[in-house]
Fold this protein.
Amino acid sequence: MSAAVVKLGVGNTASVMFALERLGAAATLTDDASRIAEADRIILPGVGAAAHAMRLLREKGLCDVLARFTRPLLGICLGQQLLYEASEEGDAVTLGLIPGKVTRLPASAQTPSPHMGWTKLEAKREHALLEGVADNAYAYFVHSYVCPVGEATIATAEYGARFSALVARGNAFGCQFHPERSGAAGARVLQNFLSLPC
């Protein structure tokens, strides 16, 4: 079982690779379109701005590869946001695998942006990605933009507003939080993703 981790240079890919290694996964960090297209599953991590990340994906010829991929694909943090149709961040057109638009996280004195830290997950429906994850488990977030709550939402979190923390639609899955930094709950989500049938 091979996992291709997309190398964009805009994410903390080292911690993702270490997390996969701890789980015994055979993972390759690459930006080679043909290797990514042939992988059993893809992980798209990202930290930074949506418009910049999409420009890098286009330059590397990866937009079509990701959009046409039929096996499990997991977006992490910005990677989840890129699965949607568009983002307010840089007015970016994104991959379009999940309906909806990513919007700026509302900020206030009580909930300054970016949202950084541990926040409780609230499951909205049963899903294989949540198998073995404790009810109301905490996950680690770092983000300034949020994905809408909709049919793809598996779990939500709340910080200034309620948003999609974990999503699934077809073969596309996403974590707004960083599973590689979220202790036992994050490790279980990653393991569940690696165990999804191709």
